[in-house]
Design goal:
8-stranded mixed beta sheet; 3-stranded parallel beta sheet; alpha/beta; TIM Barrel; Serine Threonine Protein Phosphatase 5, Tetratricopeptide repeat; 3 domains; Spore Coat Polysaccharide Biosynthesis Protein SpsA, Chain A
């Protein structure tokens, strides 16, 4: 059987997290025609022994200070139609969505995919930020990693699937280990800026590394230098990110009033849409009256905003939660698909099963949970409901041809 998915992992000397990472990959490896390639960049023989319990493909790699070189070694050995890469200090909670993507054949309609990387700031897991990480690609002869640090898989090909599946990443928790990682990264990024002053990614990553280390002055410096480079290269999206991060840095350094001034500058001097590359738009219900029953608010502004995004060529990712007995009527799902089928900027559609995890949060806050008693949505039925929306999209697009 042909291999559908190659999973490639860089393993250094992190014994404590490697097994947890590898265990989280077992459902993918058992359910899919797949292979696991581990590029061993460390020196700890115990780590090698752990790795060899999971795959015969453990390939030693002499560390040379270049993450892309190590990643490309795994990419070169890959036999899968698709390629997924992961680090040894992160692990999945649930890979069912990714399994279904391949088992159901949905992968045939995409060329790349993102999943969520949850970056924790503390070991207790209470403070974190989510990042949509580009980690899967349909392999081609041109596929390769670029960048010695914070490497990127190229080329990025559309259409792209956006998974809700999440990996937990503790690599930047502030302790001696993260300080070591930051002290390693900063010199490499400084050299990258010197060698490639036109690569905006290096300014972004350097500002983040200095921010993590608490060196606000240097972080602010590279934010401003990166913004100037963005102006020269006409890159409004990266410029917007740097401006927003600059506001955060100024807050840390001098207080909120200065940061407010920075944010006011964005709103008064620059078009917010020029700083936006993707909008995730949640449509609760396509019918105006039923939307109002569900949310106590009309949906005309939401639908008008979708049209506005299309007119301004801002990529849009539609999300719709299927709630049993409330938003699962095929008539309205088809109507939703027919509505969004008119948009050329539609890049992804997430149809999500309703769950009841929010109910306990409402109880703790002493609030009334309006959907109390509504059961969680069956995941298999959600696949059927998504198909109804897709049929609506197809009909609208067929009429527009």
């Amino acid at each position: 059987m042909d291999i559908v998915l190659t999973i490639s992992l860089l393993a250094s000397d992190r014994r404590e997290s490697l097994e947890r990472c590898l265990d989280s990959l077992k459902p993918l490896l058992s359910k899919l025609p797949s292979e696991l390639i581990i590029i061993f960049t460390g020196t700890d023989e115990k780590v090698r022994e752990i790795a060899e319990k999971y795959t015969p493909q453990v390939i030693p790699f002499a560390w040379c200070g270049d993450f892309s070189a190590a990643r490309n070694k795994g990419l070169k050995e890959a036999q899968g139609e698709w390629f997924l890469y992961i680090d040894d200090d992160e692990w999945f909670d649930d890979v069912d969505e990714i399994c279904e993507f391949f088992l159901g054949g949905e992968y045939k309609h995409y060329h790349s995919a993102h999943y969520v990387q949850r970056n924790y700031q503390e070991w207790n897991g209470t403070k974190y930020s989510d990042f949509s990480a580009f980690r899967l690609i349909q392999r081609t002869a041109e596929s390769r990693f670029c960048g010695a640090i914070h490497e990127e898989l190229t080329p990025r090909m559309e259409p792209c699937k956006y998974f809700q599946s999440c990996v937990h990443h503790y690599g930047y928790v502030k302790d001696a280990g993260s300080a070591l990682k930051t002290s390693r990264n900063i010199p490499m990024l400084l050299q990258a800026v010197k060698d490639h002053p036109g690569q905006i990614k290096n300014y972004i990553q350097l500002a983040k590394e200095f921010g993590l280390s608490g060196d606000w002055k240097s972080a602010e410096e590279y934010c401003r230098r990166g913004r100037e480079a963005c102006r020269e290269l006409n890159d409004p999206y990266s410029r917007g990110w740097l401006q927003a991060y600059l506001s955060h840095l100024v807050t840390e350094k001098t207080g909120k009033m200065t940061a407010i001034s920075e944010l006011e500058f964005i709103l008064t001097q620059e078009s917010p849409m020029e700083l936006t590359s993707l909008v995730m738009l949640d449509i609760k219900h396509i019918d105006p009256e039923k939307h109002k029953e569900l949310t106590a608010q009309p949906n005309d502004g939401i639908l008008a905003f979708a049209k506005y995004l299309n007119e301004n060529r801002v990529d849009m990712w539609i999300r719709h939660v299927v709630v049993p007995g409330i938003t699962d009527d095929d008539k309205y799902l088809f109507k939703l698909g027919y509505f969004i089928g008119q948009f050329s900027n539609l890049k992804a559609l997430d149809v999500l099963p309703y769950h009841t995890m929010g109910e306990t949060k409402y109880e703790k806050l002493g609030l009334t949970y309006k959907l109390s008693g509504v059961p969680a949505m069956d995941k298999d039925k959600v696949i059927e409901k998504k198909q109804v929306i897709l049929e609506g999209i197809k009909k609208r697009r067929a009429e527009g041809q």
